[in-house]
Design a protein that fits this description.
The complex is a heterodimer of chains A (about 450) and B (about 290). Chain A is an alpha+beta fold. Chain A contains 14 helices and twelve strands. Classes of the chains: A alpha+beta (about 450), B mainly alpha (about 290). Chains A and B meet through α3, α4, α5, α8 and α9 of A and α1, α3, α4, α5 and α6 of B.
């Protein structure tokens, strides 16, 4: 009883605290309905259901599979009856001697496809066994392959082509002209040494061992030179070119950011209202910054690529222009927020206007200046990748090329991993430098 | 006597420290300049055209576009609001595509904000005592932040075809990573007294977060969210350029076809939109957290 009495007293004094706030509840509910309505509108406007229906999940699985696995193709030509084994369907990588999982048996060829699947292939028959059970029986004829076994839902049967995938890692395709068996293995093939290299098939640990053991493989050069040049010149993974492209991208980010910071610093003093007394000059400087930022790196890079051609120089200029706008805005705001007392103190000691700025303002804005520059160094590494894709070169262009062919997803994955690693390294480096240079006082940049 | 000795000693020490600082600063500046000059030279070598030969041509492209736009006369200003080149398969007005680009930015910021705020709470050391959860969520934010949006967008375009949702998903992932890092920094700076009070009165973890932390941090969250929105408008324009729909995709088409008036019109629309959104969001941020530091 006493509690209810107290509550009544309290309710009389603080009605907001006890009574539910109807207006607030209505606002919340209204906001929620608005959000749901907006998302529904987006669902229709972006045609999400249509896109989901059209989405090719085959492509997604293939992409995912190809990024961490590679496959051997076993091909039987219908015309000649010859068997060849190669990597990813690339004829240049064909095996000279058949591997031990492809064995001729009584006029047929037995292919151990792994995961318990075995295929027997000849010009007259393709049979696939899941352990002991016959799951596929195809007879290739002159007018196209004919299926004798039960069709499964993992098979696609067309008049002149039958293909099937009894397991994610096992696939067969029978057409009029040839039978192809695809056998997947996990890993990145030939990552260190390509198939034309003398060291192909050597693991990296053995290669490191070779470097330290005395015997020269190639008498004309030391093992260290050989191993390094073979890895660097790997034709399938292009380590040398990829690293060079990565370096170009970092270069673009570095030069663009530093040039922008150097240019923006004097200009930002002209835009700050506590340093520059001329209103017209201030206003036009601020609009210039807005314009430089508003045009955006995308459009700047188009303009500069027209003038200076494709390449990192155009990328540097694009980043320089955009970031001069951003830095100009950030720095001039930092100058405007600077404490006036320090300026007054220097001024009253008899300093001229330049000395007042140098000793009164610059020490105050230096932490902002350094931390923003370092922060942008990291974010520009990502921007440089994007601009590179649009034609400025570097790792972005390499990535675009790797994606365009649409086959070697493992190469694409390799480049992506590299980009992510570099961005994370740049991120850590810039926050480490930030803390070192500003003595740990700075909390968060941007 | 000893006092004066000590003072001279301190002065000498100061002199040495000051000189050392100057030498270090000078060396760093020299290193910076050397790296810069070397970098620009390497870039110039790798470029197909050189700096000097390109300088006179800088204004060629803008001049080309603007003169084509000028040739259209007053008609130029109606370009965004009427369907251009329907014979080439353009279905909507540029204004419609602009709205699509802005919608891409809004939706991706909303999703990024939603995920980012949830993750940020799990990534704050003062709110979650389980270090494994904090560690995992933090690594997730690192990776989500490092993924360039364009890469995810290209993958999704490969799977879904040319559609804005590719860009939305890509930007949303990046945004959730970037925002959750900033949000978790805000959360860790929150005053824990409210939290302790709620703990003492027996509140559950969710109640402690909802009543003790959220009221303190949401103005900062909104401010960072708006900042991200500005960035995402640009990002959705750029991702459109690689095929994710919106004005960017139309822009790419006309850049390839070299239709100057349309290019000029679209650039103008993009610049005006970006500048307007910048101004609006700066105003809104000032409202939410008073004077914004940057």
């Amino acid at each position: 009883m006493t509690i209810t009495a107290h509550m009544k007293d309290l309710a009389a004094i603080y009605p907001d605290a006890v009574e539910p706030n109807r207006r607030k509840q209505v606002a919340w509910l209204g906001g929620l309905f608005f959000l749901i309505g907006y998302l529904a509108y987006i669902w229709v406007a972006f045609d999400v259901s249509g896109a989901l229906a059209r989405a090719s999940m085959d492509r997604a699985t293939l992409l995912a599979l190809d990024s961490y696995a590679y496959k051997h193709h076993v091909e039987l030509s219908m015309k000649s009856g010859e068997i060849s084994v190669n990597l990813e369907g690339n004829r240049r990588t064909a095996f000279e001697v058949l591997p031990d999982w492809v064995v001729p048996v009584d006029g047929e060829t037995r292919v151990d496809m792994g995961r318990g699947f075995t295929a027997y292939v000849s010009q007259t028959s393709l049979r696939v066994y899941d352990r002991e059970d016959l799951i596929v029986d195809i007879e290739p004829t002159a007018s196209g392959p004919v299926l004798h076994s039960e069709p499964h839902d993992w098979m696609r049967v067309a008049p002149n082509k039958i293909e099937g995938r009894p397991d994610t890692y096992v696939r067969f395709i029978a057409t009029k002209s040839k039978i192809t068996l695809q056998v997947y293995s996990t890993g990145w093939e030939n990552f260190w040494f390509d198939s034309s290299s003398d060291l192909n098939g050597t693991s990296i640990w053995r290669a490191i061992g070779l470097v330290f053991s005395g015997d020269r493989i190639d008498p004309s050069q030391s093992n260290l030179d050989l191993v390094a040049s073979e890895i660097w010149g790997n034709k399938e993974w292009q380590h040398g070119q990829v690293m060079h492209a990565m370096l170009i991208t970092i270069l673009m980010a570095f030069c663009g950011t530093i040039l922008a910071a150097i240019t923006a610093l004097p200009l930002s003093f002209m835009a700050a209202n506590n340093v520059n007394p001329i209103r017209f000059l201030r206003g036009s400087m601020k609009r210039t910054f807005d314009f430089l930022r508003g045009v955006d790196a995308l459009i700047w890079s188009l303009i500069f690529i027209r003038a200076f051609g494709l390449g990192p120089l155009s990328g540097i200029l694009a980043l320089w222009f955009t970031d001069t706008g951003t830095f100009g805005k950030l720095f001039s705001e930092a100058i405007e927020n600077a404490d006036k007392k320090q300026m007054d103190g220097v001024n009253s000691a008899g300093a001229g206007s330049i000395q007042t700025t140098w000793f009164g303002v610059v020490p105050q804005i230096l932490p902002v200046l350094i931390s923003q520059t370092l922060y942008f160094l990291e974010s520009n590494t990502r921007s440089a990748t994007v601009i590179g894709m649009l034609g400025a070169g570097g790792i972005g262009l390499k990535l675009a090329d790797a994606m365009r062919t649409g086959q070697d997803w493992e190469n694409t994955m390799y480049i992506i991993f590299l980009i992510i690693a570099v961005v994370i390294i740049m991120d850590n480096l810039s926050s480490w430098l930030r803390i070192r240079l500003i003595n740990g006082t700075e909390k968060s940049a941007l | 006597m000893t006092n004066i000795m000590a003072t001279t000693n301190i002065a000498a020490q100061y002199e040495i420290a000051e000189r050392r600082r100057r030498v270090y600063t000078g060396l760093m500046l020299i290193l910076l300049v050397v790296l810069l000059i070397g970098g620009v030279r390497i870039a110039e070598d790798a470029n197909s055209g050189s700096l000097l030969s390109g300088l006179p041509k800088v204004f060629d492209y803008p001049y080309d576009i603007l003169s084509q736009a000028y040739a259209r006369g007053w008609d130029f200003w109606s370009i965004p609001f009427s369907v251009q080149h329907p014979e080439n398969g353009i279905q909507h007005t540029y204004f419609y595509y602009l709205i699509e680009t802005i919608n891409m930015a809004v939706v991706s910021t909303l999703f990024g904000f939603g995920f980012g705020s949830l993750i940020s709470i799990l990534a704050s050391r003062n709110l979650v005592k389980n270090y494994a959860i904090v560690w995992i969520t933090r690594r997730f934010t690192d990776i989500a932040r490092a993924f360039p949006e364009i890469v995810i967008a290209l993958f999704l375009i490969f799977i879904f075809g040319k559609n804005p949702i590719a860009a939305v998903a890509a930007i949303a992932l990046h945004t959730s990573g970037a925002l959750s890092k900033m949000f978790s920094e805000v959360n860790e700076n929150a005053d824990m007294k409210a939290w302790e009070g709620l703990e003492a009165s027996g509140a559950s973890w969710i109640q402690k977060v909802w009543f003790g932390i959220i009221p303190q941090v949401w103005p900062n969250w909104i401010s960072y969210g708006l900042l991200r929105f500005e960035i995402n408008v640009r990002a959705s324009a750029i991702l459109g350029f690689v095929g994710a729909g919106g004005l960017g995709q139309q822009f790419k088409t006309f850049v390839d076809w070299k239709f100057g008036a349309d290019i000029a019109s679209i650039i103008l629309m993009l610049i005006l939109t970006i500048m307007t959104i910048d101004i609006l969001s700066t105003w809104a941020r000032r409202r939410f957290i008073g004077k914004v530091a940057h």
